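Subject: Protein record for review, amino acid sequence with backbone structure tokens
Why sent: The fold of this protein is of interest and is recorded here as tokens.
Enclosed: The protein record, placed directly beneath this head.
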Amino acid sequence: MKTKLLLIAFLFAQLNFAQKKETILEQELNHHIEMGEFKKEPIKIATFPKQINDGKNKYLSLNLDKNKINELIIKSDKFISLEIPFSETEHKTIALKKRQILHDDFKLVLQTEKGAITQEMPSYVAYSGIVENEHNENTFVTITLINNSLRGIISIGNKEYTIGPKKDKDSETEYILYEKNNVSLSLPEFSCGTDDIDMQLSEHNKNSNQQTTIPKCVTVHFEVNNTLCDLWGGTSQTISNITNIFNSVQQIYALDLMTIRISYLKIYTIPTNYNETNTTTALNSFTQTNSGVLQGTIGTLLGVNGNGGLAWLISGNTCDIRRNYCSMNYDYSIFPNYSWNVNVIAHEAGHNLGSNHTQWCGWTGGALDNCYQTEGGCASGPAPINGGTIMSYCHLTGSGINFNNGFGVQPRTVITNTVNNSTCFTSCETAQTCEDNVVSNVQVVDNGSNYTITWSSSYPVKIYRRENISNSFTLLSTVSSNSYIADYINDCNIEKTEFKIVSICPNGDSKPTVIVVSPRGKTPKLSQTETNLCTNYQNDTRTLSLQNSSSYNSFQWKLNGNSITGATNATYLANQLGVYSCIVTNNSGCSFFTDEISLTQDNPISSFTYTKNGLSVNFTNNSSCSNNRTWEFGDTTTSTVLNPTKTYSNSAIYTVCINNTNLAGTTQECKQIPIFNSWTEEMEGTNNGINTNTTYQTGLCSQAIKFTRNSVSNYLQNSFVQYDFNNFIPKQGTIELLLYVTGGYYNGSSTISSTSAKIFSIGNSAGSNGNTDLNVSSNGQISGYRYNSLTNSSQIFNTSTTPFSFNEWNVVSISYGSQGTKIAVNGVVYYNNVNMNYEMNNATFNLGQIKYSPGISFIGFEGLVDKVRFSYTQNDFQLAIPSAPTATASQTFCSGATVANLSANGTNLTWYANPTVGNPLASNFVLVSGNYFVSQTINGCESSRTPVAVTITTTNPPSTNTSQILCSGATVSNLFPYSNSIRWYNSATGGSALSASTVVNNGIYYVSQLLNGCESSRVAVNVTVSNITNPTVDTAYTSDAYSITYSWQGNSSSYDLRYNELGTTNYVFINGVSTNSYTVTGLLPCKKYVMSVRANCGGTNYSNYFGRTFETKNNDNSFASVPYLQDFNIAQSTSSNSFCTIQWKQISGYSGILNDIYPNGNLNLNCNPTVGSANDVVLSRGIILTAGTTYNISYKYSNTEQNAVPVSLNFTVGTDENVNNHTILKAHSPSNNTGISYNTNYITESILFTPTVSAPHFFAFNSLSGYTSGYLHFDDFSVSTSLNNENFQNFDNIKIYPNPTDNILFVDATNKEINKIEMFDLQGKLLKTIIENKDKYQINLQNLPSAVYLLQIQTDKGKKTVKVIKK
């Protein structure tokens, strides 16, 4: 004997069940199926399968019938068939045979704080089996029923399915079934510490490849530590898990004809006495503690330490250390997973029975597979064909482990020889040899005070009894007969009584038969059997009652476990869906629950039919299982009437629905119902009533029915159509026909007419009672005939004219009813009699040949009928032959235009190339110059065609240079040509035109031109962009009255210049300039010029011209003269900052503001810079002063900034515009208290100034103050010669009035003689001179424009200048 400790760990990642020959299990079960030992119909235990796919896991959710599972456990049938859903639509049948997995001496012990407690094993059934009708795949099934739950493994080929309660709890009602590759399972990581093994097989083992029948069996002593018990959910759940797992372990061993059973199961609810620090210490402690005292040939400790298992490898006759430790997978929080635990337990037991790993080098031929590194240094074995075996590590590869392969030949031989040759193992069958001699036909009769039990058995029996499942069975008696009387125990706490009967066989007891009974009256029955409220429909109620209700004296009915208030009688009228039961009390005072009944109800079936009469509809309700209904008529109205009648106000297609409701829910049926106040018979095919001897041909609108007279003696050979509208002919309304009549016929005893035609007749035959006929005579007159036999009278009506035309299409209409009778042809009323107000009868409607009477054979017409229209509205003339559409007679298009571009006014237009024949033109048909024709179609009828003359205009492409060089940064606007009619593209066809600002790159561009709305084809232009940039003209320049000097930026070596006066196109060109600046001479004063420059981009290619607008200065002729007055009452524009056009200007570089319109007629100077000190300047135009002459300069000023500090202001004068060169005439400074403070009233300042040179002088106001200093206003600036040296006393006595004046200005210098009066404008121009030497003057200003003028009055005493205003 050799012993070796192996650490075995598994990741049960893949188990394959590959195709092979039938297994022993499949052979056995197929034999039982052929022998008919299974019920014909499989048991359906799962309902409502629902496929779940959350993106990570895909599985099937099931509801299992717990009652059926419990029934299967109680019956414990040897053979069963179950129907299992595998999807929402697919079900499979599994055939199962009951297996014994517990040894006859099995014992269940709970190790608790109170010590070891022996427990009764709960009722269970273990099955193994196959999936039926899987002819191409091996199948492997184990199903365990225990604690009212079901668990198992179902394998089909290489697909393994697991079925069990969600989260693996017995109490779960939701079950799941999944294929392992479709879910993400939480399994332990893989780790392995296996040592090489040098065990040698005996010669017998090496040479034996035959399966050995084992008369002995392996018994397993299981112990479960408290940690695993807690993680699995307690003792009851642990018992369920061990039973289910071992069922699959046993089946794996049975595949190789080996028997293994559980002999002992101890579950710890407290910590064990073993040292479970790790797997090694746990196994050593478990082995040493239990040496020789285990209740089985193999001892297995189950825990959660490690990632696999640890086992002693035993190959001899040693009996006391066949021990292993198995780490279990306990995490079933997402999905139940049994395969890992099954494989670990089967694998570790294989080591205890002598087998090594398949990668061991000591096997005959070396390692058996290549799934893991070899143990012993030999070469790897072959790859497994259909998956690995139990002792392999093939779960770490794609091959996986195939349960159907079992252990494989050599490991199986080692294990079977170990068991057979060791005295440690005995037979499993010593306690059971009469399995087929079981007790049968057991019945229990309640006699009131006792039970009579009867059965069938070939042997004496033992009878056991227990009250309630928590108690143990007690032996009542050993009986040789087939009956026994047991006492009735009157105890209200007894919920269930069980009797167990066992046959006493010659060599042991049989398997027990258990029957469950209730104490007398314990579970009274409900008498109600029909549970669906739709059966024998009772308006959503059902009367519930009890069997033998007289045995009880009180009742309390419950719904879904809750007491129903007031429901205390022996019967109850149930009106809600749910589970009903009743608590009853018998005469002994014991209360019991009855059985339960589930009251259900199918959804109502909604159905209805209808009949129509114009806008009125009669509805018939054909629904079932409905308590309430609501009709929805599609026009917002509703009804709850059973069979309603609805009259609609408008023609339409209405969606009508009926909604039916009961306790189960609401259903609906909807129908789309065409409700028409009118309808049209289209004469399409054979759907037109009774159709005899007719043919069809193309009509005006579509297909038309053709009527012909084929016989003059037999009317049945002639064409006719007869409609039976079943009371749908409008009693009052309108009938219209679109027809083409070629002739009529009238067949009597001697006369045949080929012209008169009877168009239609309403009635079974023409001229009968209540009938109406409509006729047309040979001259086109329309007539009608109305006959009433009750009054023996008839009414004949006809048109006074002849509107009907033979051999043409006509619309004939008749309106009848309470509003009178009208006849119309082609929409025009030709007969109107308001007193002929009759109704049509509701018989047949006849067209074509019409039988008239026995004496007159038949009448009718020959021709075509395209449409017949019926309307319930009188005077409803709608049918019409459409007129041709209108269109512009001549239409012009660009080349490439299609039919879609043509225009006409009409409905459903169709274009043709021919006026009467030919097929319609497609919308993409390309037009050419010529004539086209258009029709319109209304209500399916096509009109005649309107001609349209089409002219196609072609635009030639523009002339261009096909190779162009542009400067860097050039845009589309630089390409040649470029104008409003030119379009540039970057593709040969399609696309949008490029904008003028699009930057051009090297490449091919395409140009076209658009003339008169038509675009030409495109011409390709190869564009090269050089590194020469477009020039940019600088903003700074210098000028005088006759020249401008400007500059530009660019990198070209040559430029062309041009200039023109602003607003003109008279260009002057200057070419070949090699510098980046130039002075243009020969200009005019006070003119604006556009100075432009272009760059030579290479060769003969140039950029566009780029330029700016500059201005020449004024010459001496534009200066002002004395006297000078500026009152700022007339607005001046500051858009030009030149004295050529303005009196005062803002100096460039300063911040003074000169408003376009002076507020309150004054000059404004803003002294509010945002930061720092101001340097705000406004400058007057040049005023010519003479050297040595003293001048009086006068102005007014104010400061309207309320919070201003005193402003610093310099009033200066100089002979140029540079203020820095000026002389200060007046300094307003806060330092000497002369600063300009807040003052809204003007202050007048007068200054005498004598120039030293004769020249134009420029005056300036220069504000020097800081932030928020003020907002200055100036007014009435004047320059005049000083009077200081003149004797000018009492000059103020001169009166000038009225001022302002309209025309006449009076000057009155009483007692003073005026020598001369001169009048000037504000620019100093002399307008009038008056020399008369008198003291009174009248000056006529009528010819002067409205303005401000200066009047200079000269006397012997001196001169005075006065401002006057002409209104």
